[in-house]
């Protein structure tokens, strides 16, 4: 029924409408308590989400959403807390590595995860470093500059979010999809 929004003009002008949505997997990793579940729950409320594919009922369930961006639909599956020992064998298109700005050790953990990913997988995989809980400004233990400098050095996008306030979580969803798409080679005409 969604195809009703795709006109014949779209297909004739090849305006980028996908008939079959691409399916992308994203792993959300980071220390316990940094807000990974809260972030993935907020993805469901994004204005870019066309319809919920899976609304998780328990912690183990994956969040899967349909995202409409730039006239194209993509299905995105978010896996939380995969086994760290298996990270390089995970078939995912991107990693969102989260830490809490109130917990310096969670930043240190995030930096070692990213170093591990870059050593084992090189630079072809999308990685986003996310500083969460920015609503807790007065408890801040990690500076934006320190985190951003690290992200630049390791070829990662850097974002700051507050999952409880739903602040910049939408931007994170869009940024991860844009970067996954930009790493794919364009289809040959
Ligand atoms: P996870 O273990 O990484 O999945 O973390 P959770 O999503 O379970 O969050 C851990 C705790 O941090 C919960 O009590 C959340 O309500 C809280 N939390 C998550 N995100 C934020 C945030 O952006 N700001 C604040 N103040 N608390 C948050």
Automatic annotation (TrEMBL):
Keywords: Phosphoprotein. Residues 3-16 have a biased composition (Polar residues). GO terms for cellular component: plasma membrane. It comes from the Eukaryota. Coiled coil: none annotated. One of its GO terms (molecular function) is GTPase activity. Signal peptide: none annotated. The keyword Phosphoprotein applies. The keyword Phosphoprotein applies. Belongs to the small GTPase superfamily. RGK family. This is Uncharacterized protein. It comes from Patella caerulea (Rayed Mediterranean limpet). The chain holds residues 111 to 299 of 346 of the full protein.
């Amino acid at each position: 029924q969604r195809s009703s929004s795709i006109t014949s003009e779209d297909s004739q002008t090849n305006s980028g409408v996908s008939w079959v949505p691409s399916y992308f997997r994203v792993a959300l990793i980071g220390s316990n308590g940094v807000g990974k579940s809260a972030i993935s729950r907020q993805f469901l409320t994004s204005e870019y989400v066309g319809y919920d594919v899976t609304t998780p009922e328990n912690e183990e369930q994956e969040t899967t959403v349909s995202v409409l961006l730039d006239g194209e639909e993509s299905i995105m599956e978010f896996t939380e807390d995969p086994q760290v020992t298996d990270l390089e064998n995970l078939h995912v298109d991107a990693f969102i590595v989260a830490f809490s700005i109130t917990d310096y050790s969670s930043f240190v953990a995030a930096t070692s995860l990213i170093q591990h990913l870059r050593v084992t997988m090189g630079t072809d995989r999308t990685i986003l470093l996310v500083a969460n809980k920015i609503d807790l400004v007065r408890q801040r233990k990690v500076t934006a500059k320190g985190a951003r400098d690290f992200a630049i050095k390791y070829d990662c996008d850097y974002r700051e979010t507050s999952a409880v306030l739903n602040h910049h979580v939408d931007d994170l969803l869009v940024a991860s999809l844009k970067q996954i798409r930009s790493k794919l080679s364009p289809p040959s005409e």
